[in-house]
Amino acid sequence: MKKIFTFSVIFLLCLSSARLYAGADTLACSVFCYTKASVGCHSYVSYSGTAPSSAAYHWDFDGGAVVSGSGQGPYYIIWDNAGYKTITLNVFYQGDSCHASRSIHIIPAPTVYNVTGGGSYPVGGSGVTVGLSGSQPHFNYYLFLNNTTQSIANKTGDGNPLNFGLFTTAGTYYCKAKVDSSSSSCLVNMHDSAVVTISGYVPPPYICMVTFDTTTQRNKIVWNKITGYHLAHYNVFRQTSRENVFAKIGEVAYNSFSAFVDTTTNPIVIAQKYELSVTDSAGNESVTCPYHKTVHLEVSPGVQGFNLIWNSYEGFTFYTYLIHRKLNQGSWMLLDSVASDQISYTDPYVQPGLMTYYIEVIRNSPCYPSLKSGNYESVISNSMTAAALGINDGNSQGISAYPNPVHDKMIVMLPVSGSNNAELEVWSMDGRKFSEQTVSEPKTEINLSKLLPGMYFIRVISKDITGTFKFVKE
Q: Fewer CB atoms < 10 Å away: N or C end of the chain?
């Protein structure tokens, strides 16, 4: 059996391959890694070839410790000493085998230097310098602003202090370094940071999400705190009856949890847009941030099942809506998921009772409204309840109720055949059961004075009848 080994190098990536032939190709092995890494770096190593995952993979990382990975990989490997290391791989499958290897140069970890510069400059000024107190050849240095993952400037080390230039964006600047020709996972934090401020300028905050608060049944606006400024409070705005005209609806002290519950609007009725600004201790207020718009869900019974329709969430990019459902007071279940360009869905499921739904959007990264703890990861719509057509029609079952709309008390009339130990339940449109009682007479008076104004269901269940109908509480 003849073995032919083929080696190739593409740009800064290293790739080694070997093929085993038995009349025709049977197995092919390739090992990928970067040409360099630093001590303590999580170095990426991967396999590609024709062997299935069930084959036997025997790796030798030449003294490197496996951080993660198994089988055919990929792997993250750490070496704790410098030098040239040889990664080897032997693959065995159904009597065949192949071999591949590659060398990686492990460089001592970069020296940690101090970030320099920063400071304040007047509005309209040229900005301030940000730099690094030193550098090393063969290392690349990257500058980051605040908590972003994309660098805003970079320099190659030459053994001298670095100057990244003048910066006019207010915020906190950090620097990270890695050996050239290595993975971005090898970035090492430099010491300290540089803060850039603008005299008389307050940076705008950004809403992280607007979601439905299940405790208060109202919209909750959530944002991440801004640090490094003498801030006094955040200002919350909601769109008025005129498009893109916003009015202030509340304030939240800077030291408070960065969230606001809008108690002056009902999420069941309409979707809302919100904006945010922040005011510092000197009374300077930032411009408002881009708005976020809530998801408003409507549910109606169809000829078969239930029809759901909602508006698109606006405020951040996402790709999927999750649809949740429950029957009566049962457990929530994930019904389905649809692409983010879809805003309607028909659930063909039909069963006696009340069906409740809500829509969920998962953020790519969570919100942190507290500097110490707390995070929010998903936006949810209002929940909505409906009863299937032709199954829970109270009138067709001989059930009636008056007055409707009702102020305090309502009379519920049941047919004599269905009034023996009937269960009478009051439900909200968002699937909450407010009360239940057992009745044994055809005529029953119920007290609804404690309900907030809105639309509700009355559901009647007995041995002989089952009916559901809506009423309005004034």
A: N
